[in-house]
Amino acid sequence: LDSMRPLRRTPVPPGPFGLSALIGAVASALDGSGPAVAPVPTTSVTISSDYVAGILRALRPDDPDAPLESDEVAVVLATSGSTGAPRGVLLTAKALDALTDSVNGTGLTPQWIAALPLSSMGGFNVLLRGLAAGREPIPIESLGGAAPFTPLDFWQAVHAAAALSCDIRVSLVAAQVRRLLSDEAGIEALKGCSQILVGAGPLPASLQETAKSHGIHLTRTYGATETSGGCVYDGEPLPGVSLNTLPTGEVVISGPMLALGYRLDRALTGARFTESGYRTGDLGSIDSGRLTLHGRIDDVVVVNGVNVALGAVEKVIDACPDVESGVALALPLGEDEVEIVAIVIANRAADGLRQQINAAVQGALGRPAVPRRVAVVPDFPQLPNRKIDRALLRALATEPGRLTWLP
Questions:
Q1: Which residues contact 47 (CB under 8 A, 6 or more apart)?
Q2: How far apart are CA 257 and CA 234, in angstroms?
């Protein structure tokens, strides 16, 4: 039956005002006193009107011809992974609250810093955890792309939080951590945090080592909007979360934090939300309850008759001593062939970087996995949700002259 509960669009402007614009609507949606909310970013310098239009097409808030799938839905969030094609995820108040005590800690009142876009799951969870702790999150000035993210921006937020609590928490992405670890003020700010969650993609080993050298612990989180955000910390599932793998190696997650499905897409809901749990599309293995990821199912390509997982190639590249972070792409080469290329951020200029990468990949994965070309960039382009924009990277890699390939 169609839900009688309305779904209302809640515009989320960039900057600290986005938090105050959203927090009241979310609180009433969660306790049932108000309509379900669809947080949607507003068009800005960093967020295009096309991106916003795509989210609205997927969520269809305020549309009487597209009623909610269930009265239990409190929030509909857009997710796009790294594809840039948004889908609406149907989240209940019960699912969103399922892991709050496990993260916040019972009886604790942490002070959260809002550093990720509030219309994405990582940033939205910070808002929820702040509400649960009875402390409104402190937003950084650059929140949601209002300005470039800087170590000073983050340091100021941590300084403000320290005046309120000695338990300061934050969720970041790897690109932000990289920027903070390159600056003395950023390092000092990170040291002032009692918990630093890093999600929305892989955390390069080089960043972990750099953080460790400064006495900073980074907690790798794994999850999705469909699982109400990160539900596996440093490979270990949070209480109530169950992990399994299918014979294909696909990771399946179950627990009370699962979404009900996708907005206006019953076929995809049936395919991804099964009796055994949510099919993530990620390849992984579980040893003594600990999860190790090996890449995406749709990132497995055939090179010279050999299956190559691009995620595995990226992991090897990230471990190279002169690489800060890397992305592996499969580009068309002829009618039925592909070539693997690598685009990397180098942590220092070094001769022989391509040879270093190729030797490491060949030694770990075999010759078919070796990138045919390697390019160095200062940073990776990002989607508004701060995930790497792989579609744009692919476009740059295929357009002549856009990238400089190493000899």
A1: 14, 41, 144, 145, 384
A2: 18
